[in-house]
Design goal:
Layout (H helix, E strand, L loop, with lengths): L2 E5 L2 H16 L5 E4 L6 H10 L7 E2 L7 H19 L3 E5 L3 H17 L2 E5 L11 H12 L2 E4 L4 H7 L7 E3 L3 H16 L1 H4 L8 E4 L3 H4 L2 H14 L5 E4 L2 H9 L10 E3 L4 H9 L3 E4 L2 H10 L3 E3 L7 H5 L3 E3 L6 H14 L16 H11 L2
Parallel strand pairs: 1-2, 1-4, 2-3, 4-5, 5-6, 6-7, 8-9, 8-11, 9-10, 11-12, 12-13
Bound molecules: uridine-diphosphate-N-acetylglucosamine (UD1).
Amino acid sequence: MRVLVVAGARPNFVKVAPILHALVRAGEAPVLVHTGQHYDARMSDAFFRDLAIPEPDHHLSVGSGSHAEQTARVMLAIEPVLLALRPHWVVVVGDVNSTLACALVASKLKATIGCRIAHVEAGLRSGDWGMPEEVNRVLTDRVSDLLLTPSRDAHPNLVAEGIPAERAVFVGNVMIDTLFAQLPRARALALPQSMGLTAGQYAVATLHRPSNVDDAASLGAILGALADIARELPVVLPLHPRTRANAERLGCGPLLDPLVVTEPLGYVEMLSLNDGAAVVLTDSGGLQEETTALGVPCVTLRAQTERPATITHGSNRMAPWPLSSAGVLAAFREAFLQGRVGAGTRCPEGWDGHAAERIVAALRERC
Ligand code: UD1
């Protein structure tokens, strides 16, 4: 089976690692393409190192830009790679611009090279067309031949869009494969202790969605809430480059002062920090899932989530919308009082460390 796996941005690396490893264990020789959407050492190289991802076979070096620029550059760069390699499967993961760009090009080349497209993390829907990721998810699913879903709730979403039910296969959550594989290293690292933090006595926050960080009112409300929480316990904020640039540009810099601000962290560092946190506050999709697997209460700083399994599990809650400092503070206090949920002993179905093996089986069955 010739399998080409695409990764472009930080959350993709966490998903492709177990898939690549499972393919190799099964005797396959996957080809890895890195689009270069994320390129900083801390956004990319650190993840390759932590997760033992092999050097990409092809690096497209597209870099940053507007959505149109970035998507178009990936499309132009992946086309000759697909034409040269003629893979049986093009595996795309998640919902970033690189995901859609490669799926779209592969779908137009199907007749020429006979490839098929598998989308890992298919069927998640926030219902918010204002989110670039929602556009990427819906369109990627539409052009994919095999929809590999992380949770059962994804299936009715696909059927409602007219996608034949037999195209979807429930495989479980591949991000959680990575989490379980790396947890012993994360615990041995004990990052909170080396930062002078006490387990269960600090919060972690992450923030990077354009809708939260691109204007002064929303960024100010969220950072204001984090500053309020920091009066009760330390708040660690590993800062995404977009958020750092915007905080300075929008005059929100002083609101960072009460927080423990760090550079973006590597995977194992971040897992070590999250594992010991009292509460995580985030607008990331992946962190909602990782906290669910860890049993750490999470407050989601968005209008809606495409990952309802994290809510029904009981570990995740939505901050009242529209976000306000008082609303976020109240949600944080509720989450803090709630404490751990299941503590990693009870996870949603298929979040069991074996999703990548099921993905390889599904690819083989349909090759
Ligand atoms: C992208 C994904 C988002 C994902 C996030 C994880 C899309 C539409 N968005 O958002 O779904 O949750 O990655 O981080 O694909 N930058 C750097 N160094 C880098 C990469 C980016 O400094 O290595 C800066 C650049 O100023 C860039 C900005 O961050 O313009 C945004 O990067 P981009 O990849 O466009 O989107 P993210 O906000 O990272």
